[in-house]
Each structure stands twice: as structure tokens, then as C-alpha cells.
Automatic annotation (TrEMBL):
Species whose genome carries this gene: Lentzea miocenica
Pfam family, one: HTH_20
InterPro entries associated with the record: ArsR-like_HTH, WH-like_DNA-bd_sf, WH_DNA-bd_sf
Gene3D superfamilies listed in its UniProt record: Winged helix-like DNA-binding domain superfamily/Winged helix DNA-binding domain (1.10.10.10)
Protein name: Helix-turn-helix domain-containing protein
Length: 180
């Protein structure tokens, strides 16, 4: 089972965005039959089977085994990932964005999301996540931005050689809710 599946096709999103299917998918965190899921969700096996088939068709679940129960073959299904990320591109860009607009942060977040989803492997990958909060007075914003650019440029110069593992750096600064 993968950690993350990045959904950028409308068909996948439409399949997933039905409350009953989300509940079925949650039950498929471990391999289960449609009958087992139906019992937990208090649904008919036929109804669950329909939803499971739609999830399999969209690539969100898969049949992992088969067993014989009372002379009938029964499939065992499992979700293909622990998390499902929907691409903002499913809606599409509305209007233009400049680098100082919040929409630019949405584009940046989507790029990070797509990159992380593409990296998802069965093995642990080296990565770094840093988050923090700073407070900058309006009159100090330009100085802050200049210092930030200088610091990043220094890091890019120092570690930007052709040797070693390549890492992408994404930095986002945005207002923190109503507590500005």
C-alpha cells in the first residue's frame, strides 16, 4: 500500500467524492471482502460490491486475493494508499496570478504535493520539513524579504554543486489566520 496517491484525473475525483465510497475505502485499509465491509457499514453486500468495483476501476482500490467461501469465490480488496490528495488543477486556474498573490501559494503547494506523491515509495526517503512562525511588522517586510533572499542565495551557492542528492526547496510565507 502506498502512502499517498495524487489524484489529478476528474474520473478518479468523481469516484472518490461520494461519502459512501469514502466509507468503503476506509474499511479497505486492510484486505476485506465486500461481505465483511457490508457488515461493518450495515449495507448489503451487493451495494458494497458496486462501490468497490467503482473504486477498483478508478485505481483507488485493488483486489489482493481470492478465497472460497461456501463454494463461492470471494474477492479480498484493499485500498491502494493511506492518503488521497486531490489536485487543485481539477478545478483549473481561474484568472491570472502574480508571485505576491495567495493563488501563487496554491500553485506552489500543488507543486510540492505532486512532487511528494511522485516520490512515494516503499522505502524511507531522506527529507526535511521545517515549519515555524515569525512576526514581521509591516515597515520591516522589505528588509525581511531581502534578508531571506540573501540567506537562501547563500545556501544555493554553498550547496548548489553538481554532486550529491538533489532536493527541491519550497518556501511559503502567508498570514496566519486572524492572529496577524
Amino acid at each position: 500500500m502506498r502512502d499517498v496517491i495524487y489524484l489529478d484525473r476528474m474520473e478518479q475525483a468523481e469516484t472518490l467524492l461520494k461519502p459512501q465510497r469514502v466509507e468503503v475505502l476506509r474499511q479497505l485499509a486492510a484486505p476485506r471482502s465486500c461481505t465483511e465491509v457490508a457488515e461493518v457499514l450495515d449495507q448489503t453486500p451487493q451495494r458494497v460490491h458496486y462501490h468497490v468495483k467503482q473504486l477498483v476501476k478508478a485505481g483507488l482500490a485493488t483486489q489482493v486475493a481470492e478465497r472460497k467461501v461456501r463454494g463461492v469465490q470471494e474477492g479480498l480488496y484493499q485500498a491502494v494508499a493511506r492518503s488521497y490528495w486531490l489536485s487543485p488543477r481539477l478545478v483549473g486556474r481561474i484568472g491570472s496570478r502574480d508571485e505576491l498573490a495567495l493563488g501563487h501559494l496554491v500553485d506552489l503547494a500543488e507543486q510540492v504535493q505532486a512532487d511528494v506523491a511522485a516520490l512515494d515509495r516503499d522505502t524511507e526517503l531522506p527529507s526535511v520539513g521545517v515549519s515555524g512562525e515569525i512576526r514581521v511588522r509591516p515597515e520591516d517586510r522589505q528588509q525581511f524579504l531581502a534578508e531571506l533572499q540573501t540567506t537562501l542565495q547563500d545556501l544555493f551557492t554553498r550547496y548548489g554543486g553538481a554532486e550529491g542528492d538533489a532536493f527541491r526547496i519550497a518556501l511559503a510565507c502567508y498570514p496566519k489566520g486572524d492572529n496577524r
